[in-house]
């Protein structure tokens, strides 16, 4: 008595047709997912989102911090310090330096002062950045508290310079 083979030609053909059908459905699914992502304004492979914060004018340039979120390699949140021509608002980083954290920008009209912490620096040293017409000067400080203290002292100095001198009533009576 002859035995029938377990896999005959008809059964093998059905497996090939099943795989072909599966590949066609997978290709259609990927195309439809890409079209849906595109229609919703996105992509299948998301790019980091960026936002530029307040612009500060110094001489012929505008300065700002730009945050970038959603990186797959390295820190997911990155800061860049950059410039733009006045009125253009097209951010150009001043260097490839990536900052992990930053402070506000303080301006006295002649210069801008801010502080930031570098990404590759494992010690977490903060740097105060003094931006003037001559360029950017970096001064290392111990930590964020010291950087904030430098900015606060500058703000206090600016307020005392810009506030009008108060005249007491005793001073007025002496001058008469």
User: Helix/strand-derived class?
Assistant: alpha+beta
| DSSP E strands, number | 10
Tell me about the largest β-sheet: 5 strands, antiparallel
- Give the topology string: H per helix, E per strand: HEEEEEEEEEEHH
Mean pLDDT: 81
Number of DSSP helical runs = 3
Question: How would you describe the shape?
Answer: elongated
The percent range for strand residues is 25-35%
- Unreliable parts: 166-176
Rg (CA only):
31 Å
Distance between the termini: 137 Å
| Share of helix, binned | 25-40%
Notes on the protein architecture:
- With 176 residues, the chain is α+β, with helices and mostly antiparallel strands.
- The protein contains 3 helices and 10 strands, in the order αββββββββββαα.
- It has helices at 9-39, 144-162, 169-175, and strands at residues 49-52, 56-58, 61-69, 77-85, 92-93, 99-102, 106-107, 112-118, 126-132, 135-141.
- Strands 1, 2, 3, 4 and 5 form a 5-stranded antiparallel beta sheet that branches. Strands 6, 7, 8, 9 and 10 form a 5-stranded antiparallel beta sheet that branches.
- A hairpin with a 2-residue loop joins strand 2 and strand 3.
- It is elongated.
- The chain starts with 8 loop residues before the first helix and ends with a helix.
- The relative contact order is 0.08.
């Amino acid at each position: 008595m002859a035995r029938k083979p377990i896999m005959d030609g008809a059964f093998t053909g059905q497996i090939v047709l099943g795989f072909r059908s599966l590949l066609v459905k997978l290709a259609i699914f990927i195309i439809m997912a890409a079209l849906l992502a595109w229609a919703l304004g996105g992509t299948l492979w998301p790019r980091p989102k960026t936002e530029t914060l307040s612009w500060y004018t110094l001489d012929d340039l505008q300065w700002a911090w730009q945050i970038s979120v959603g990186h797959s390699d390295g820190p997911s949140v990155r800061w860049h310090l950059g410039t733009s021509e006045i009125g253009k608002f097209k951010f150009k980083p001043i260097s490839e330096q990536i900052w992990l954290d930053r402070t506000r920008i303080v301006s006295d009209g002649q210069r801008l002062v801010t502080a930031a912490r570098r990404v590759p620096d494992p010690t977490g040293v903060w740097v105060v950045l003094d931006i003037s017409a001559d360029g950017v000067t970096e001064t290392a400080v111990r930590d964020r508290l010291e950087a904030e203290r430098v900015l606060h002292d500058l703000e206090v100095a600016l307020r005392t310079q810009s506030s009008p001198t108060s005249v007491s009533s005793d001073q007025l009576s002496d001058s008469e």
